[in-house]
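Loading example: each entry is read as two labelled lines plus one structure line.
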Amino acid sequence: MRRALPGHARLARRRGAVTVMFASGLVPIMMLVGLAVDFDWVLQAKAELDLAADSAAFAGAREAGADYAAGKTGYVAKGEQAALDWWNAQVGILTNASNATATETISQSGNTFTVTVAYTANVPLVLGQLFKWSRAAGAQIANTSKATITINQFGTVDFLIDNTASMMLAATATDEANLEAKILTWLAVPGNAASVPDGIGTSIPQCDFACHWKATSSGTNQTDYFALTRTTSGAAAITLRWDVVQTATTAGIQEMVSLETVLNQLSVGVFTFGGVNMASSSYLQTVYSETTIDQGGSGKGAAAAIASLSTITPTVGIDTQIDTNFGSAFNDIAALLPDSGDGSTSASPKRALILVTDGMEDDTWPQAIPTTEGPINPAVCQVMKNKGYTVFVLYTTYASDSISLPGNNVQLAPYINGTASPGLVSSLTSCASSPNDFVQASSPTDIQNAMTTLVGQAISSATRLSN
Amino acid sequence: MLSRRKPAQPGSTRPSSLWPRKSGIAAVEFAVISPVMLSIAIGAMDTTQAIVMQRRSIEVAQQVGEIATLLAIQPNQTTSLTPTQAQQAESVIFAILPQLRSLVGNPTFAVTISDVVFTGTEPNYTANMAWSVPLSYGMDVYRPCGVVNQTTPTATQRGSNTGDHWTTVPTSGMSSSLSSVLVVDVRVQFTPFFLNLITGSFTIYQTAYFNQRSIVSSYITYDTSADPNVCPGYI
């Protein structure tokens, strides 16, 4: 039988009971606290190492892609080295992981590079070190990060430029006013007024908006307003929308030269909507056949393409006026050009078509008011999309301030305010491969900027790093 | 008559004097132990808070870099950031550290995006600061213009000549003239809730390096005509 202790002895046992309990509980308490801190510690180290792996994969992909695009050899090894360097650079400022090692590998599929950075690291644990418990001295963590870059190395840009009469409007309000003054001066010359065709009358100077009238050798109408825009006598020289488009196309081709990263990487072709006389010409005219911009030497092909622009004949003239027929033009160019490739080799360039137009069609779709004119049927663009082309559209809008000029007659107003072209913007947007591939611009500066932007998109849209 | 006194049974005698002694012991013991326990508890809480803050600052650095490099790509593949885009990227800190969002208590923090541009060819190249744009509250953190120190490829120094600014750059793989480094610095001043009087406030800092997502441009330009954040020669 257990004998009860005397009272003072029991009291002696109770004294310090809390201390003993605390002392005995302190170890597990400390272990729990240590466990919580260690857990956070490991998570933090993992976050840091994930960052380093992402950064390394990022850098490796760009380095391999840049070297590949530049035509250098050993781009895979260089990319892997870059990934390793960036890993070291990022891990070097980390403090929470020891023995962090990473393996960088780059795989290539065509012109796509995928970088994989796999790391392992040992994170020291406070708990394990505190108790000298070797099995818990550190936590092993591992993860993998990937980055991909696609180099759109070889590309071809084909310009399809609207050269029909409606592109012959004055470029700015100032040009408009100057053209009007020129026409009035010309009409004041005895005999000239009588040659204005169609009985439109001479009280109001016609056609200073978009001069369709041009003298022909055989016709009786000798009015040549287009020629007036080309003369430098009298009022200031007139810049037409057509001139602006040529300048912008020149800038676009020069942009290709500046963005080319390897010789013979990019090619250019220039096409317009047919010849002077539609009766004997197709709806499509090749101005400059597809050639690399380095044909004959670095940048020489581009220079030749630019020079070819001046040979384009604007289709103006009362007798030989060319109808804009988007459907036929697209069918013709689709038949003429090969399908788009993936850009991985010079034999299979990634292709893009840049259409520069006011979007107005003289054909019968959709029988718009008051004539047969109307906006482009976006369905006609599909034939090029089916060939793998990215279709870009630069819509050159009519200058809205032209309508206020006194010389403009009422026939021209619907084209300026858009009533003659219902749904034109949406139709042209649908013609483009995506809404991002459609731009509208009116001023010379805007048109040029839009052109260089579209060219950049055309040749570089796939060259992005993602992970 | 003397009554016979019953012998005292252990534990049942003098209860009125024993209980006070007993409870006093417990109180004393508790008084001794509780500071230790409290210290452990609040120490663990503050430590955890600090570690969480540091982990989130890593997230901030990473996300700011990811977003800034994404925003920088232009349609023609060149790379540039507008002041607004830089601020947009830097304001990620408010999403990841929401306690900073209201600016209650005047928190001190800064997120800085900088671009380092390499000229020359490896190994004889120079790294220059092109621009450095901070989003800062209570601390003015930006990287100074001029040559950025760099040492050997294995160097891991963490700032020396400009406070705790980053000075080490990756020194290999930089032979391409198209190379640059986008640097994101995150600085957050952390004030422990309990141990503030002992430890005071201290700054948690994190740096992330990012390459740009384009092979066309040599570096990300900061798109503004005249900004004190843009270094001479890079405007």
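The longest helix of chain A spans residues 17-69.
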